[in-house]
Every structure is written in C-alpha cells, then in structure tokens.
C-alpha cells in the first residue's frame, strides 16, 4: 500500500515493467464520441430546415427499398408504441440506467475513494442528490400537468390573453370538444388538452404543463447535478491515484523499443486499461452532464422569458416561413410570433413555481 492507506497497484502493472502499446482504439473511441455529440447538436439545429427534412425523406425512401415490408411494419408499430402511446418503457429504462450507474459508483469508486481518505460528506453527495431527484421524478410522473375539462374550462380561458396569432379566440379542440384556452395544446399521446402545454416527456411518461413544470425543472436540475457530481468524484479519484502512485514520473518502452517518459495521453490510456469500468462511467456521466446541462439551460431560458417548448418551436417555424433558405430577412420586424406573456424575470419565475390556478383548484376541492 502507498503511505497513508492508499490503494496499491500491483508491481507488474507499472508501465516501466512491461511494454504497453499505445492504445489507438481509445483515440478512435474519443473521435467517435465527439462525432456523436456533433451529430446530435447538428440534428437539433438543422431539424427545422427544409434541406434536412428533404434528406430525411430521401433516406427513408432508400431504406424502404432495402428493409422488407413486414420488418418495416413491425418497426413502425414499435415506434408508435414507444413514442405515441403512454407506456412505462422509458421510465423503466431511466431507473435501470440510474441503478447501473450508482451500482458501479458504490461497487468500485466509493470503496476506493474511502481508501484514499476522501471526505464521506463528499462521497455521499451523489446519494443525497439521487434521493431528491427520485422525489421530483415521481412528482413529474404523477402530478396532473393541468388537464382541461368541462369543469375548469372557463377558469383556464381567463388565465392568459389571446394573441390572435398563435392562439386565436373561439377555437375548439376537435378531439376534446372544448374551447382552447391561450397557450394550451391537445396532446395526442395522453389524449387530453393541457393548460400551458410545454411538451410530452417519455422519460416521465407524462405531459409537462403549468402544474408540473416546476417539478420537472427540479428533476432536471438534480439529475444534472448528480451526473456532474459523479463525474467530479471520478475525475478527482483518478487524478489522486496518479499523484500518489507517482505514475506521471514513470517511463515506458514505446512501439519502437525506446524508453519514453509517461505523458498525459499515456496516463489516460493506462487508466483505461487498469480501471476500464470507472473510465467508461466517467465518459458516460461527462457526456450526460453536457447534454443535460445544455437542455437545463434551454429550459431555464424558456422559464425566464415565459415561453414553453411548444411556443418556442412554433415561433421558430413561423420565423422560418420567412426564410426558407435559412437566410436572415432584410427587414427588422419580419417575425409573426411575438411573446406577449413575459412580465419580467421574477414575475415569469413566480408564474412557473407558484401557478395561481393550481392553488385555486385546491381551494375549490
């Protein structure tokens, strides 16, 4: 063991004791990870352009000639079940992934960090965030998002002003046979109209609306924080391990038979060989923290400006109708959609976290 109760690496694992080839597959894996991230960001940015939609349509036509019809029908039925009907598939998948991550953290990282004399408060922080996250996850799943019914239809009609653009007056929902309040939308997955509809989230198997958007934001915040905390703990553990073992001072024999001082790339590759599951976990939570953090910032931007995802998307489509070639319009005021509901930062946040209609409904009951 290293001094002070540090975990000891076997002597045969030290890099100057054997010839370890440089791991080209790790570099390829990092390039693959970067490519996937760039692909996701590109799809998110270009998903509303006509060019991208045309490419998707042509790609679907080419695939339709390759895949047999019976397999295509089965895939369409599966996709319809997963994304167009209420089911618990993604809820279960969410819990399984979260359980796997925390199992690996508990099984390896927690014990090794204890040997390195990490603070227990520091190590237990991910568990505390997990408990809070599961609480808000349950609330996001089970809370009524603001379903519009015959009983509360008139009440919801008085909450928001109609803009006569995106939300005109005297429009009825053809499915629910209800007058549509401003900022509401019929969800085809849940088959109901939702007040201040944001989006339908498959991960919580529920619509996100006026009455549960605050729980969803806390859920997203704690999930991002737990992933980021686990990434920090894993990174600090690996860095501490390198420092106490003096790995950065070692030498190794490269592919040409020359003695070479260990550099940063080699240290990463060596840790990948020695602790593959921890390094994979670190890569996963880092990517997850980046994606969740980006989406959280987007949701906070919408909350601060009193917009919903539905309104932002429809407003972006209205803008793009003036620029089919993704070119900026020459005039200064070409937009069709104008946000008339923003009342300043604090008023917008108070509307999110203290929805007035929800309190009124509780008093009635």
Q: Any overview of this molecule?
A:
This protein is mostly helical and 365 residues long. The protein has a domain at 109-144 and 211-316 and 345-355. Helices cover 58% and strands 5% of the residues. It contains twelve helices and six strands. The chain has helices at residues 24-46, 50-66, 69-84, 89-115, 120-142, 153-157, 213-244, 264-274, 276-304, 309-320, 345-353, 356-364, and strands spanning 185-187, 192-194, 199-201, 206-208, 251-253, 259-261. Strand 3 and strand 4 (206-208) form a beta hairpin. Helix 4 (89-115) packs parallel to helix 7 (213-244), helix 5 runs antiparallel to helix 7 (213-244) and helix 8 crosses helix 9. The longest helix is centred in the middle third of the chain and has 32 residues, at 213-244. The relative contact order is 0.11. Mean pLDDT is 81; it is low at 1-6, 8-23 and 322-335.
Features:
two-stranded antiparallel sheet; 58% helix; two-stranded antiparallel ribbon; mainly alpha; disordered N terminus; single chain; 365 residues
Strand content: under 5%
> Tally of extended strands?
6
Average pLDDT across residues? 81
Spell out the helices and strands N to C: HHHHHHEEEEHEEHHHHH
Protein name: Palmitoyltransferase
Membrane topology: Multi-pass membrane protein
InterPro entries: Palmitoyltrfase_DHHC, PFA4/ZDH16/20/ERF2-like
Domain Palmitoyltransferase DHHC: 172-314
Task: Describe the protein's topology.
Blueprint lengths: L23 H23 L3 H17 L2 H16 L4 H27 L4 H23 L10 H5 L27 E3 L4 E3 L4 E3 L4 E3 L4 H32 L6 E3 L5 E3 L2 H11 L1 H29 L4 H12 L24 H9 L2 H9 L1
Antiparallel strand pairs: 1-2, 3-4, 5-6
């Amino acid at each position: 063991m290293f001094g002070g109760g540090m975990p000891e690496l076997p002597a045969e694992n030290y890099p100057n004791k054997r010839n370890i080839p440089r791991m080209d597959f790790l570099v390829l894996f990092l390039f693959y990870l970067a490519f996937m991230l760039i692909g996701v960001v590109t799809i998110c940015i270009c998903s509303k352009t006509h060019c991208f939609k045309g490419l998707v349509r042509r790609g679907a036509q080419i695939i339709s000639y390759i895949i047999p019809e019976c397999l295509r029908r089965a895939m369409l039925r599966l996709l319809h079940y997963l994304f167009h009907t209420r089911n618990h598939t993604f809820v279960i998948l969410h819990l399984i992934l979260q359980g796997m991550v925390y199992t690996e953290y508990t099984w390896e990282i927690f014990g090794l960090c204890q040997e390195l004399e990490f603070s227990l408060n520091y190590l237990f922080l991910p568990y505390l965030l997990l408990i809070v996250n599961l609480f808000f996850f349950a609330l996001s799943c089970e809370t009524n998002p603001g379903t519009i019914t015959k009983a509360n239809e008139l009440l919801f009609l008085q909450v928001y002003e109609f803009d006569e653009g995106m939300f005109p007056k005297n429009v009825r929902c053809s499915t629910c046979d209800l007058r549509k309040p401003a900022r509401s939308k019929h969800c085809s997955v849940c088959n109901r109209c939702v007040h201040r509809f944001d989006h339908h989230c498959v991960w919580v198997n529920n619509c996100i609306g006026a009455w549960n958007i605050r729980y969803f934001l806390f859920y997203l915040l704690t999930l991002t924080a737990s992933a980021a905390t686990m990434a920090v703990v894993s990174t600090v553990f690996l860095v501490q391990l390198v420092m106490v073992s003096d790995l950065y001072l070692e030498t190794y024999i490269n592919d040409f038979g020359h003695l070479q001082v260990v550099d940063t790339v080699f240290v990463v590759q060596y840790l990948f060989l020695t602790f593959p599951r921890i390094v994979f976990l670190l890569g996963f939570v880092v990517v997850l923290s980046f994606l969740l953090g980006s989406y959280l910032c987007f949701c906070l931007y919408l909350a601060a400006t009193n917009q919903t995802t539905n309104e932002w998307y429809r407003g972006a489509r209205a803008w793009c109708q003036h620029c089919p070639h993704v070119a900026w319009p020459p005039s200064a005021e070409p937009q069709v959609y104008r946000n008339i509901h923003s009342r300043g930062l604090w008023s917008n946040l108070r509307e999110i976290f203290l929805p007035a209609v929800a309190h009124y409904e509780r008093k009635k009951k």
